[in-house]
Amino acid sequence: MAMNLMELIAKFLTPDMIARIASGLGIDPSLAQKAIEAAIPALLARVAGRASKPEGALQLSNVLAQ
Length: 66
Prior knowledge:
The protein is mainly alpha-helical and 66 residues long. It has helices at residues 5-12, 15-25, 29-51, 54-65.
């Protein structure tokens, strides 16, 4: 079964990772979780918008190649 990008990101952001992010920001882990859940779709939309243009697609390709 194919996994979408949101699911892949969610798997990476384990409770431990979220706790470390929250600690680094000095906020409660549940607040960090909510903020991350809200930010992921916005960030992916921005990347998709960028990649839809030839120069953006080239930039994305270069970043992924590194």
